[in-house]
Amino acid sequence: MLGIRLFFIGILASAVIGAGVYVMKLRSDNAILKSNAIKMESAIADQKELLESQKADFAEILKSNQEMNKLIGNLKNDLDDLDKRFNKKNRDFGKLAIEKTEVIERIINKGSENAKRCIEIAGGAELTEQEKNATKKSEINRECPSIANPSYIPY
């Protein structure tokens, strides 16, 4: 009989010890899950912040793209105007350059200076006060008045 009692006491002790180990394992797993949940919430908050930042960047890129498209449109119009000036009435520019070398040289040099300034402005250079305030045809940059002279209104 003593053997049976010891046997049942052993089984009971094993069950109590097993239950204690199981509870400790559950507590450990619970602590790990809580830690993982905190990390996941932090990661989700970081992702939301990143998405908001990307949305703002995207809006800024769209705005810059629209400004660039407007600038390109203005430059195309200026190029068309320049083309019209060069190709008036089927003139032969080479023949004209031979006949009036000094005049053509002065015109080309002035046009080159103006075109260089147009490239600088298109690249982001600030307008000078003289360029901003130019309203007469004699004061403007004739190569790209739409970007170089915002106050100029063609008449």
How does this model look, in words?
The radius of gyration is 40 Å and the shape is rod-shaped. It has helices at residues 2-86, 93-99, 101-122, 129-133, 145-148. It is 79% helix and 0% strand. It has two domains: 1-82; 92-155, no CATH class. The longest helix has 85 residues, at 2-86. The model has no long low-confidence stretch (mean pLDDT 87). The relative contact order is 0.06. It contains five helices and no strands. It is mostly helical.
Outline the fold blueprint:
Elements: H1 2-86, H2 93-99, H3 101-122, H4 129-133, H5 145-148
Helix pairs in contact: 2-3
Proportion in helices: over 70%
The total strand number stands at: 0
What portion of residues belong to β-strands? under 5%
Radius of gyration: 40 Å
Structural class by SSE content: mainly alpha
Largest sheet entry: none
Distance between the termini: 123 Å
N-to-C series of helices and strands = HHHHH
Count helical runs.
5
- The backbone outline, from C-alpha atoms, is rod-shaped
Number of domains: 2
Concise description?
The chain has helices at 2-86, 93-99, 101-122, 129-133, 145-148. The chain has 155 residues and is mostly helical.
What characteristics describe this protein?
155 residues; mainly alpha; rod-shaped
